[in-house]
Design brief:
The complex is a heterodimer of chains A (294) and B (808). Chain A is globular and about 60 Å long. Chain A contains two helices and 17 strands. In chain A, the strands form three sheets. In chain A, strands 2, 3, 7, 12, 13, 14, 16 and 17 form an eight-stranded mixed sheet that branches. Chain A has a four-stranded antiparallel sheet with strand order 6-5-8-9, with no helix packed on it. Chain A has a three-stranded antiparallel sheet with strand order 10-11-15, with no helix packed on it. With 808 residues, chain B is mostly beta strands. In chain B, 9% of the residues lie in helices and 57% in strands. Chain B contains seven helices and 48 strands. Chain B has a 22-stranded antiparallel β-barrel. In chain B, strands 8-15-16-11-12 form a five-stranded mixed sheet. In chain B, strand 21 and strand 22 form a beta hairpin. Chains A and B meet through helix 1, strand 1, strand 2, strand 3 and strand 4 of A and strand 26, strand 41, strand 42, strand 43 and strand 46 of B. Strand 4 of chain A pairs antiparallel with strand 41 of chain B.
Chain lengths: 294, 808
Amino acid sequence: MNKLAFLIVVTGLLLAGSCTKEIEYKGDNEDPVLVLNCIAEKDSTIVVELSKSRFFLASNNDDYTITSNAIITLTNQTSGQVHVVTTPDANGKYVFPVAALEGNAYSISASHPDFETVTSTMVVPYETPILSVDTSSYSSPENGTIMKANVTWNDPAGEDFYIMKLSIINTVSGLEFLHQPIGSSDQSMDELSATDFDGESVYSPQLFFTDEFFDGTQKNLEVRFPIQWMVPDPNDHYKFTLYRCTEATYKYLVSSKKAEYAANDFFSEPVKVFTNIENGYGIFGALTGAIFVK
Amino acid sequence: MKKNNTSILLRMFIILVLTTFSATVYAQEKRTISGYISEEETGEKLIGATIYDTTHRLGAVTNEYGFFSLTVPDEDVVLKVTSFGLNPRFFVVPKGTAELNVALSEARELEEVVISAEDTKRNVESTNSGTIELQMDKLDKLPVLLGEKDVIKIVQLLPGVKSGGEGSSGLYVRGGGPDQNLILLDGVPIYNASHLFGFFSVFNSDALSQVTLVKGGFPARYGGRVSSVLDMRMKEGNTKKYNVEGSIGLIASRILVEGPIIKDRTAFAFSARRTYIDVLTLPFQEKEQRGGYFFYDLNAKIHHKINEKHHLYISSYLGKDKAYFKGKNDYTNGSEQISSRDESQLKWGNAIAALRWNYRIHPKLFANTTLTYSQYKFNIGYEYKETVSGNGPDQTTEAGFEYLSGINDWALKSDFTFIPNPNHNIKFGIGDTYHTFKPGVNRFNSNEQNNEIDTSYGSYFQYAHELFAYAENDQIITNRLKINYGLHFSVFLVGDKNYMQLQPRFSGNYMLTDHSSVKLTYSRTAQYLHLLSNTGIGLPTDLWVPATENIAPVIADQVSVGYNHEFLKQYNLVVEAYYKKMDNIIQYKEGAGFLGSATDWQSKVEAGQGWAYGGEVFVEKRKGRFSGWLGYTLSWSERQFDGINDGERFFYKYDRRHDVSVAFSYDLNEKWDCGVVFVYGTGNAITLPTQFIDIASNPITNAFGSSSVGMFNQVNDYRMPAYHRMDIGFNRTKKVRWGETVLSLSVYNVYNRKNAFYLYTEAGNNGTNKLKQVSLFPIIPSISWKFKIDFDAVKKNREANENKETNE
């Protein structure tokens, strides 16, 4: 019997061994391209990260950041001002000495002798102030106390893209707990953030949604979030940030988040990460946040 | 739209009434001969047998229940009755005789090569286009994976049909998806036709009597799917004598028992198949940790002839797959005795049943009424139980998780065949299917120290009615022109939404010469069910979901043009070109999948369009010692969804530019025959991210730190290596005193081609990566032994021995 078992194991190993082999990649798209990443926040300095893409069979150990021979030109198309940066800072980032201004249009180009020049444009969105936040709470048998909040703002006419974040500020300790889990079952939610409160409630660090269903009207969004340590602290204050962002920024953030999840799930469909960089990859976008502390 | 549909239906009805009326008037000076054609040895009804009036050159073909009706001048006629592979018979039918029931006997090998003119005309004259009927007796001669005869694997060798991947039993017909095939077993739809994650189909070929594939030019009687119909009929049971057949293979064994309950009146057929991987591996497993996998199929059928006018059939199928793992652990911790048990299991299966009543209302009118039930269930579960004793009262902790999905159908339908004269063969019918969809429910329970949780979440059950009515006429216009036209009208009632579809069908055949013809078909088809699938390899996690208020039904329009030519008396050449457009097909959104099923499935899918076009060449030799076919397909299949691939068109993952298949068998002598299969196909289209980039720093997602993501230009823009392999098999048939045995030796993938099942990257030296492929099946030799007990032979032998003993 032992001999038989040995034979079966050896045969199994031989078969299993024959099951994988290295193959040659026969396709195009092997050459790296420039990757320009810049998501500017209103009234903040514009910072650009420049790197090159990594061919999937190339080494993971190499540094793909580009720190020399690059010329990055930023043009404020509204004011006509042009800024050129050729040297990165100590962190390898290209910092422009200007802040992103609400409603201003910008274009950018990055050139490097080894790559095709990349270009892109964007307009910094206007703020959409939060008018009010009403909170209440209820008990959940599995998750302790759950807070409900109704966040209200006026949505401007036209297609808009939003991201909402929550942090909790404790007035006694002075600490701000960032990236608090938050959920909403509103129909405007992207599936990345949609929460089914009747089923398995999965909260996200942020809510992604568009104004497809409430364009140009006053929106009252119901959100829910579990309380830390299961019991509300009377010294806690809830800080809601409503970001209005460019379409490209929204699509880039949503698609890159989904791509990260999909990479770890065999059953997921592949995700095409959005880019608005001509001749390269990455993002040139902006967002404007409005804060309301309750 | 509704008004328009009603108007068309009304016109169609008027045309049918006029046709029927004129035909009846015309028939007054004639007589109608009707009856059944069956096989002499088994009593099985023969489908597609021809009855030909040699005097007046009029003919008829038996329907799917072996019934025919032929209207001829009321005088003595000589009828020739033929069916493929059986000896033709001639009858002088005297004036006034209206009924004829014929039994045909099996042809001897030498007689097979004698081909009559009427036989050879059948394919080339028929209006059926894109229709292939498999010869069940020839299938046994072809080599298959692990010696498991599989009808789906043979269907995959036909032009226009592709498999999903290595070993897969999925069907992709003319650019369609695996859910777009109506797979019927005795008229009942089968939802998941796969065993062992798609490597074997659920159909036990021993239990089947006929298999027909329709991939274009759908007659109006078929509805509910947009790409193909695979119509399989189970054996009715031998009404003459008992028959036992069986086989023992490497991974499974099977048996078929059939015979008369009341001779020539009531017969049964029962077959079973089971794998024994679990049993074989049991001795090598530890008692505390046991796992296994098995599947089984049970088919049963009873046929009762009430009288010449009424026949009753009851048939059923039950099949199940189960993979399981059981663990137990008993130990002590101080004064406590701890005993834990856990069990994980994955099981799925189909159950169907059909009650069918055939009624010959009139020599020209035949009715079939069927009540059917079909169920598909998938279940994945985990249970854990721990008992702590020895320290006060026993403390028990229990926890369990279960995921359930499935679909249930109840259906009632009536089909009628009306043959007013030899120039018209009219079929019409109505039906209703009541669907219950269970598209994924999670159940979680926990019981720990009196703290009980029992909760369910996921998608809700959905209910729908699918009603249909159809009428078609197969009409001979002239000696050279024959057409089939009809309408299939269907209504789908789901929630508050009603979908209605009027689906015109047309196919025409024009004889260029006595041996060649051109065919033209058009069909519109509607499908109210969708299959949500991530992998396409026939995993049981695939979900059947209905069209809903948000997700519209799939509508497909297909045109095809073909040329048929018969040459050298035994060969048939078919060249066809097709174009198919599909609307409202669904696919998981980017990043969505089977997991994370807390939200409703509708939020995870995207509706879009599909295109499929190409050409097929099929050369077949059906008779003689050497038989088989060669198929070649050149095709394109594309998809477009607004939210996928930036809304641009992309190749479907089973887009296959070139596909070649060769399958033939050769009878070496009376004992030995061999079979060879060769397939070649362009590699599957996959999405391979080839450039990786770092995600931009931002105030939104920085909570998780920066990471990199893969970029690709187009969905499915990379091709896996081409697929090809050759299989060879030999069968040795031996007559023994009690019947017959067949020893089959086969080699799958004879030149050990390592075909890619999927690709992945693996870390190499110095941080580099390698592109690697996983192959499933290397060269695999197999052996199986089949037996057939002939009770007549046993009886004769016994009698001969007794006589011999008496004489001695």
